[in-house]
Amino acid sequence: MRRFMSDLDSLFGDFGFGTPLTRDFYSTGDSALWSPQIDVSSRDGQLLVHADLPGLKQDDVKVTVQDGVLTLSGERNDTHEENRDGVYRRERSYGSFRRQIALPEGVDPESIQASFDNGVLEVTMPLPKEAKPQGRSIPIGPKTTGGPGRDVH
Known about the structure:
The protein is built from one helix and nine strands; from the N terminus they run H-E-E-E-E-E-E-E-E-E.
């Protein structure tokens, strides 16, 4: 089965379809390739980041901010065991992840808060106040003869 999935990945990769089908199911080297799903939105003057981290505990997740980039990282190690009708099956899913989100300019790193509940990480921060644009609209009028630096005879 693994070979079949690998062959399908190669086939789809050759045609430019990108992400391998086996990405979430099989490991490559020491760790599986896994990237949690995230949502970034704004509500009531707050920037919200939600990350789905099923099977993880709060201690498995790290949230940092540096140079205007929010980084969510961690590691999962999940084992699913099943014993049905005398057949024992065990599947392991493990690997590290790292997601980075560029924050709007002016976000105060000290104002960022994070919570974790039932496998969902929520990170909130106040959106910076919008700066007043530095500029103005220039009206466009009819072309005039002469102009700066020209003599009209």
